[in-house]
Design brief:
With 191 residues, the chain is an alpha+beta fold. Helices cover 54% and strands 14% of the residues.
Length: 191
């Protein structure tokens, strides 16, 4: 028997030997040991399976076994949770060593287990939240487009104004000009 199987009493192996290869007994032993140890490998070995491959095959082919496997895994999880709560609340006794000798014991509490249990039981309050700040820089510019002109004169007047606005925005020196009315629009005369 290996060290991993030392947690299983000899009665389980005797029952297995007496049962021979009866699959129902082997399944029962597997499920019981899984619920007690929370270890699939140990449970498979205790039930006489050489690996967990047979368990995976049973899970796919036997619906009742698959359901019982879920229940055994839930029982194992409940057992582990109860132990975590106990260690977080009551602590664990650890030896205190001095000059190579044990001089006493102290109780050590697990703050990390307690934090984990709080996060699981009240996630809305204790779970880690990530805060995302998003800064978006948006450059807004105003484009002045010549509107649809009713006449050529309107178009020439608006396009001259647009050119002047562009010059002012870029810092260019404005052009000194004189505007003279023409029959059909505005004419730019440079002075």
């Amino acid at each position: 028997m290996t060290d991993a199987l030392a947690v299983i009493s000899q009665d389980h192996f005797d029952t297995l030997t007496l049962a021979g290869t009866l699959d129902e007994k082997r399944k029962h032993i597997f499920l019981r040991i899984l619920a007690e140890t929370a270890n699939i490998r140990i449970a498979a070995l205790a039930a006489g399976y050489k690996s967990t491959a047979a368990i995976n095959k049973l899970k796919r082919t036997d619906e009742a076994f698959a359901a019982a496997l879920v229940e055994a895994a839930d029982a194992a999880a409940d057992m582990l949770e109860a132990e975590a709560v106990r260690r977080a609340k009551e602590g664990v006794k650890k030896d205190v060593w001095f000059k190579g000798e044990i001089v006493g014991q102290e109780i050590v509490y697990s703050d990390s287990l307690l934090a984990l249990l709080l996060k699981a039981s009240k996630p809305e309050k204790y779970s880690e939240r990530t805060r995302q700040d998003t800064n978006v820089n948006v450059n807004v510019g105003i484009a002045v487009l010549p509107m649809a002109s009713r006449s050529i004169a309107d178009w020439e007047a608006s396009s001259v104004a647009v050119r002047e606005q562009q010059r002012l925005l870029t810092g260019e020196k404005p052009i000194d000009a004189e505007y003279t009315e023409v029959k059909e629009g505005v004419t730019l005369k440079r002075g």
